[in-house]
Amino acid sequence: MAPASLCCISNTVCVMDASSRLGSSLVKRLLERGFTVHAAIQNHGDNELMLLPPCNKKELKVFQSDPFDYHSVLDALKGCSCLFYSFEPPKDHSNAYDEYMAEVEVRAAHNVLEACAQTETIEKIVFTSSATAIIWGHDHKKSASFDLDERHWSDINFCSKFKLWHALAKTLAEKTAWALAMDRGLNMVSINSGLLISPDLNITNPYLNGAAEMYEDGVFVTVDLDFLVDSHICVYEDISTYGRYLCFNHIINTTEDAFKLAEKLFPLPSSPPSFEKDTRIIQQRISNKKLNKLMVDFRKSEKGLLENQEDCL
């Protein structure tokens, strides 16, 4: 059940896009915690619906909701106290990010935030962004102790110059969302996620553009699905949350880490000749202390909840 400390108008929340791996997992966890969920699916079809868990129709309502269709977003948000928003490129774009995707993501973010502003029951927005909206265009050489965290933003000109389209899109979309949230008085928090490690991860993932540079700079971070989902739930249920939260639970900063990731992306017949000889550890230059502090308390409460449930059996 939703914690009593969370003051909401209703126990109903909306997940958009619920057809993504993150979205469908969020739907499942929210249902397990006693929420009623509006699952907003951009591309309504059998494949998307198969990802959603079977349950009582009173607890789960599925909406065909295009982020570019203002009225369909309003329909999905009706009666909800929170929106969990993540953007998935239209099917015809697949994983391909180009210079036009930034405009697409900005329009989607603006449309959805405006719909939230017109929905009286919305109390909180959890906006899924990316670590790529934080890490690019900073000069680590200026200071040996310089670490990146959620206070930093990727440099838009840098992203454009080096064709880092995923970073550009995520940065501009998140900035648009924050500007509108402040203008409309909306309570928003963002999750700036590292690279999501999932079974369908492949080399075409746009996050990986500039992977070698991220590795050398000590900012190549990843996150597993369970941790990412828990982070979203945590920042929603904790009434003290604010601003941005950099979310990752692993950093790729050794040759062994890089090789294991490469194996996931494209299986290799054998390790490179220099693999075992290279014992370098790249200095980590990125911090997620803000989120980790929250997650410690969240995991403790989760453990206590499970122990209480076991005692009742």
Query: How many separate domains?
Result: 1
Count every helix, treating DSSP H or I runs of 4 or more residues as helices: 10
pLDDT under 50 segments (min length 5)?
A: 1-9
Secondary-structure class: alpha/beta
| Strand order of the biggest β-sheet | 3-2-1-4-5-6-9
Topology (elements, then pairings):
Elements: E1 12-16, H1 21-32, E2 36-41, H2 46-50, E3 60-64, H3 70-77, E4 82-85, H4 101-117, E5 124-130, H5 156-161, H6 165-184, E6 188-193, E7 195-197, H7 211-217, E8 221-224, H8 225-237, E9 243-247, E10 250-251, H9 255-265, H10 289-312
Parallel strand pairs: 1-2, 1-4, 2-3, 4-5, 5-6, 6-9, 7-8
Antiparallel strand pairs: 8-10
Helix pairs in contact: 1-8, 3-4, 4-6, 8-10
Characteristic key phrases:
15% strand, 313 residues, 7-stranded parallel beta sheet, alpha/beta, globular, 3-stranded mixed beta sheet, Rossmann fold, 10 helices
